[in-house]
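Data availability (excerpt). The following record was deposited with the supplementary files.
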Amino acid sequence: MQQFFNSHLGRFRLISLVEGISYILLMGVGMPLKYMFTDHADLTELGTSLVTMFGRAHGGLVVLFIVFGALAAMSRKWDIEKMAILFLASLIPFGAFWAEKKYLAPEAKAEAAQATA
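Predicted structure:
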C-alpha cells in the first residue's frame, strides 16, 4: 500500500482505481436502479439517491484524476499519446483497470527499479 503514496505516479494509480470503482458503482448499480425499475417506486427512489451519492463522489474523483494524472505525466515525462490513452480509458467502464495493467503497473515497476538503482 505504501507504493501508492510515495510518488505522483503512485497517487495517480490509487485515484485511478478508486475513480474506476466509483464509475462502475454509478453505472452498474445506481443508474439501473433509477431507470430500469420504474414500476417499483422504492427502487427508483433508492436509485436516485445512489446516483446522487455516487455521481458526486465520482465527479470529485474525476477532478482528482485529472490533477494527479497531470502531475504524474509531468514527473514521468509522458508524451501526449500516453496521456490521452489514460484519460480516454477513464471514460470507459473498467478502463481504469485495463490502464492499470497495461500502462501504470509497468511504469510503477520501472519507477521502483530506478529508485533502487
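Summary of structural features: The mean pLDDT is 89.
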